[in-house]
Amino acid sequence: MGEEEEAGNEDMAKSESGGKITYFVVASCVMAAMGGVLFGYDIGVSGGVMSMGPFLKRFFPKVYNLEEEDRRRRGNNSNHYCLFNSQLLTSFTSSLYVSGFVATLLASSVTRSWGRKPSIFLGGVAFLAGATLGGSAQNVAMLIIARLLLGVGVGFANQSVPLYLSEMAPAKFRGAISNGFQLCIGIGFLSANVINYETQQIKHSYGWRISLATAAIPASILTLGSLFLPETPNSIIQTTGDVHKAELILRRVRGTQNVQDELNDLVEASSDSATDTNGFVILLQRKYRPELVMALAIPFFQQVTGINVVGFYAPVLFRTVGFGESGSLMSTLVTGIVGTTSTLLSMLVVDRIGRKTLFLIGGLQMLVSQVAIGVIIMVAEGHHNGVIGEGYGYTVVVLVCVYVAGFGWSWGPLGWLVPSEIFPLEIRSAAQSVTVAVSFVFTFAVAQSVPPMLCKLRAGIFFFYGGWLVVMTVAVQLFLPETKNVPIEKVAGLWEKHWFWRRMQRKRDIKETTIIGSS
Predict the structure, then answer these.
(1) Angle, to 10 degrees, between the axis of helix 355-383 and the axis of helix 390-408?
(2) How does it sit in the membrane (predicted)?
(3) What is the mean pLDDT of residues 65-83?
(4) pLDDT per residue as tens digits for the range 29-54
(5) pTM to 2 decimals?
(6) What spatial distance separates the first Cα and last Cα of the chain, rounded to whole Å?
(7) What is the DSSP secondary structure assignment for residue 170, as one 8-state letter?
C-alpha cells in the first residue's frame, strides 16, 4: 500500500510544469506569512503578561492576592496549581478564539468571492486595532474587546494565509513554503517571550502595555504589505476568470514560461468549482467525505496535543513548578527558541521525508515527554509536600523543550500545511474555514479548561494529553495519504486510491485516473 502511494506521488510530480523558487514568490510569501507572526505573538504575549505582577494587580486583583498569599505559605501544602483558576483571567486569554471562530466563517466568503488578498488585508486591520486598544486598556472590558478584535484578525489571516502560501508555492517546495506559516507563528511566539522578559524588568508598572502594544508593528507591516501582494493564479481564475492575467502571474512566480500544464489544471479546477457557489454545501457531499473528516480531525488533534497548555500558560506553569516571575519567563523564552528552531528544521526536510514520517516522529517524541513530565511532577509532589524543587523544575523545562521540539517539526507546521493542500479548489475556501473554525473551538476549550484541569488533575493533565497523542499518531498513519511532491490540483486523486477512502466510491472527473497503481 505504501509503495503504491509513493509511486503515485512520483508520477504526479513528473507531470507538473517546471517551477523554481523565485524572489517574487519568496517576497510574496514572506509578507503574507506575517499573519503567522501576529498569531504566534498573540499566543505568547497573553501567557507572559498573565505572569506579571503589575498586570494581575491592576486587572485581576483576586488572582494577584492569591499568588502573594501562596508565596507566604509556600511549603505548607498550599495548592499552587489552583492560583490561576480564574474564569475572568481565562476569558482574557480565550476570548480571542470566540471572535476568531465567527471571523473565519465570514472570511470564507470573502476569500472565495474576492480573493485571498482582501482577507489578509482585513486581518491586518483588525490586528492593528486590537493591538492599539490592548496597549491602552484601562479596564478588563477594554482588554477583552482588544482580544476580540485580535480574534477577528486571527480568523481572517489563518483562513487566507495558508491558502495563499500553498497556492503560490511550486509543488516540490510547497511543504517548505507552507511551513513558513508555522515558522512565523514560532517567531511571533519567541518575539513575545523576548519582549515579555524585558518588559517585566521595567521598574514602573507599564511593561505589560509595551508587550501588548508591540503587536501593532507586525500588524502594520501586514496591513500595508497586503496592498502590494499579487493575487494567487488560482484565485484570479476563480474570482475573475481572467486566464491571461493568471498565466502572467504564474510565469512570474514559477520563474519559467512553461506553465501551460499547470494553468490547464487551474482552469479545469476552476471550472469544476464554478458549478456551485456555496462551498459549505458542496463540502457535505459524500464524495468529499475524506476532506471533511480531515478538516475536522486535523485541527482537533493539533489542539489536543496539549501545545496550547505550553503556549498560553507556560510562564504560569513554570511558576507553578517553582520558578519566580523572571525565571518562568526565561524558561518560556528557551522553549520558544527550541520551537522556532525545530520548525525551521521541518521546513528543510518535509519535502524530502514526507508529512507522515514527521507526524510519526513528532507524535512519539511528544508522547514520551508528556508522560515523563507527568511522572516527575507526581513523584516530586509525593515527596515534598506539594512543592516541586528547583532540580525537578529544570528537568521539567528540559522535557518541555523536547516536547516543543516534537510539536515544532510535526503537528505545528503540518497542522496548517496538510489542510491547505488536500482540498480541491471548489471546496478549498470553505474547508479551510472549517479547519480554522474547529481549531478556534478547541483552542477556546483548551484555554478555558486548562486552569481548572491543572487545579484538579495536577500531573494527570499531562497523561490526559498523552492519551490523545497515541490516538492521533495512529489515526494519521492509517487514514492520511502522503502528499509529498504532489501538485496541489492533483491531490484529489490520492483519496480515490487510498485503501480506506476509496470505499466511499467517490466519482470525480480527474484526468489522472491512473495516478497510483491499482492494488
Answers:
(1) 170
(2) Multi-pass membrane protein
(3) 64
(4) 888 888 999 998 988 888 788 878 88
(5) 0.77
(6) 7
(7) -
